[in-house]
Amino acid sequence: MKRVITVAAAQLGPIQKAEGRDVVVARLVRLLEQAHHRGAQVVVFPELALTTFFPRWYVEDLDEADAWFEPSLPSPATQPVFDAIRRLGLTCYLGYGEIAHEADETGVVRKRRFNTAVVIAPSGEIVLKYRKVHLPGHKEFSTVRKVQHLEKRYFEVGNLGFPVVRAPVGGVDVNLGTLICNDRRWPEAWRELGLQQVELVMLGYNTPAVNQENRGFEANHLRNFHSQLSIQAGCYQNATFGVGVAKAGNEDGFELMGHSIIVNPQGEIMAMATSCADELVVADCDLAMCELGRTTIFNFAQHRRLEAYARIATQTGSTEPPVWQPAR
Length: 328
Ligand code: CDV
Description:
- The chain is built from eight helices and 14 strands.
- It has one domain (4-314): Carbon-nitrogen hydrolase (Nitrilase/N-carbamoyl-D-aminoacid amidohydrolase, 4-Layer Sandwich).
- It has helices at residues 21-37, 79-88, 151-154, 187-194, 223-237, 288-295, 300-303, 310-314; strands at residues 4-11, 42-44, 91-103, 109-120, 126-131, 164-169, 172-180, 200-205, 241-246, 249-251, 254-256, 261-263, 269-272, 279-286.
- With 328 residues, the chain is α/β, with parallel strands linked by helices.
- It is 22% helix and 27% strand.
- The strands form three sheets. A six-stranded mixed β-sheet has the order 5-4-3-2-1-14.
- Bound molecules: 3-methyl-2-ureido-butyric acid (CDV).
């Protein structure tokens, strides 16, 4: 039987700080309906899809920021999204700020916050939860930065690893995996998914269109190039389809990048958004292409060399190499 699924990247335009959940949820439902109308079986929304990208705003006391987080999913406010998913028979990736009352590493139960994405099955059940591992930015208010990026203040590092689950998409069981925004720049994250035979990596992002901090390393004209380079390489090197979905446009004066894409296991872009608004991009994905990559050039069992990779899992920062000494 052919394993072909139709995938939709549901890019969101900006969400302003003052905008309520009801307005956002109505936009999500509209995109789900459009996706269904265009034959999609899986719909991918951005990172933190229910709110503005709030880590740009400093709060002294994190409890003051509770309105940007979800203590449960579904909640009365988000129930219409779950209802639409069930009604339309869709599988859906949704990014949001999560509050969880759970034990930390020391066993103490406390209020914890994560940058989270869930995959919701057509039944409305959550089949996969992922908490962002690679949190960019800083923890304290920075007087030298032009724009704050306080993910390290708002969120703890994800503690669920990089799960992959086989779950139904339309009539096909598919190996589904997730990343969130900055994770896409880290090959280790992709390989964790590749090692579980992922076939569709769903990832949402909020990426500033202008980088005012890195003194040219991530120059403005390279922002989209670096994003797509990372996603295309991740897909190719792990023989998987990938969907990268932006929250785009101008949020309270801050520009976010668009260019949401669907990528195949050869690393080719199959479809790309052209606006910075709510926009749906759809592509058919033949999952046989994943198996082809996985059993040929990226046959991990045959070609990976664990004995040469010890450094990757034991060393965080880079170190200087030894200095070459010419023979006397
Ligand atoms: N939300 C993000 O993780 N944004 C980062 C920016 C700060 C570089 C990104 O990787 O797109």
